[in-house]
């Protein structure tokens, strides 16, 4: 269902929507409490606003964000954090757009590591606000025990990267790739390199 933008929106939402006057937002049906068994019954269904077109345009205007989002999603998959949806990762990057603006001279490695630190803050605070409204915490359904587990693991990974980044170009790849992918990377990277190759580079993927 498409709603015309004549509907009055809250100030933050309205300000961001007005930057893309030729886009629409959508009302998407969702099951209450994620109970898909009752989805067909109207009283067990609610509607949420979707700004897919806007989000796509915003990220396209900040091109450095896209590869970082892909790396973060891969990292999420390797760590098996199933409760962290791709939309949450995209929202985190939307919330931190300032990091990607004017970042042409910043390496992909540095941007990725910065976003890992931002993700750690999200886990610690147990909170990730929607990009479109500040009073909606997207992570409300994640238990405190799961937050503690994810926060602890991520902090250990961040410490490992900080400790070894200068001497180990594979330290980030070790946490982003699964075992089979990391072994394959080692095989490919073990081929003889020229003397002029940069030994200080860091391999992400």
Automatic annotation (TrEMBL):
It holds the Pfam family Mab-21_C. Residues 66-153 form the Mab-21-like HhH/H2TH-like domain. Belongs to the mab-21 family. This is Mab-21-like HhH/H2TH-like domain-containing protein. It comes from Ooceraea biroi.
